[in-house]
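During the no-cost extension, the postdoctoral fellow (Dr. R.K.) reprocessed legacy sequence entries with the updated structure-token encoder. One reprocessed record is reproduced below for audit purposes.
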Amino acid sequence: MELYHGSNVEVRIPKIRPNLRALDFGAGFYLTSSKSQAVQWARAVTKRRRTGNAIINIYTLHEENLPELNILKFERADGDWLDFVVNNRKNKLFENQYDLVIGPVANDSTLPVIDDYMDGKFTKEYAIERLLPQNLTDQYAFLTDKALSLLFFERSELQ
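Re-encoded structure tokens follow.
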């Protein structure tokens, strides 16, 4: 399976870096199966950091070894996904027991809903109602070195 990582630099050797900001699934190395999503991430990172060029890093995931990992997978933006994202964004998950978390990515259209839920403006039920119709792309958060060992760098593409 091919996965994409958008950045402002080529990333031949992925690393897990401590969070500089709250992320959906915690500190990890984030990828997506959507090339267009990776392009958006690359452009956003390049703009935010004001250096480098938008680059898509392409990896192969060796799926035959996935059973060795402790994986949490969210099929859609439901209540469990919302709780997990909110807890990570509030840094309330001190120790994540997962190697890999897969699920929908919170994007520009979902962030206001999540923020309003976090601020107590929306009930959980109403927030989920607003999130379900969204056509969200996926994200793969590799949270441990064990998970990263299943990724193999193939190439990078300048955007």
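The longest helix spans residues 35-49. The chain has one domain: 2-154. The remaining legacy entries will be reprocessed before the final report is submitted.
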